[in-house]
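Q: My labmate handed me this sequence with no annotations at all. I'd like to see what the chain might look like in three dimensions before we decide whether it's worth expressing. Could you predict it?
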Amino acid sequence: MKILVLYSSQTGTTQEIAQFMAQELGKAGHKADLKLCQEAQNPGAYDAIIIGAPVYAGKWKAEAGAFVKNNAEQLKKIPHAYFMVGTSFNGTASPVEMEAILAKERKLSPPVSEGMFMGRLDYSRLNFFQRTICKMMKAPEGDFRDWDAIRNWTLATAELLQK
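A: Here is what I predict for the chain of 163 residues:
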């Protein structure tokens, strides 16, 4: 299968996850292209698409949402999945808050799968506003990514994308 892995990233964390996904898809025998959401062209040239972005203040990064909005009609014809990355996915957000994050995108074009992964919080990679908010919330710095969970979701999602 020819799979387009799209991402939006602010600090590099989601980019690294998307790169890892593309590598795992390649190891599984798929052709995976990796691109930024804002650089993606001709999504119809792919058999499937995986779109991911970080979540800040309860919102999926705008470039990913814009890609879904601008390509919703094409996406309805192409199996696709969404993933989101955030350090708040540790059980502190309510199910209602979690459901709301991708509500617009889900309504525009429902995915076959959605992934949710803990990210990395490195204050040195944040802007002043983000750093201030994180410090006020006493958010712990660290790399909380679970590479096995990311691999498992990616490979299971590839199976779903083939159906």
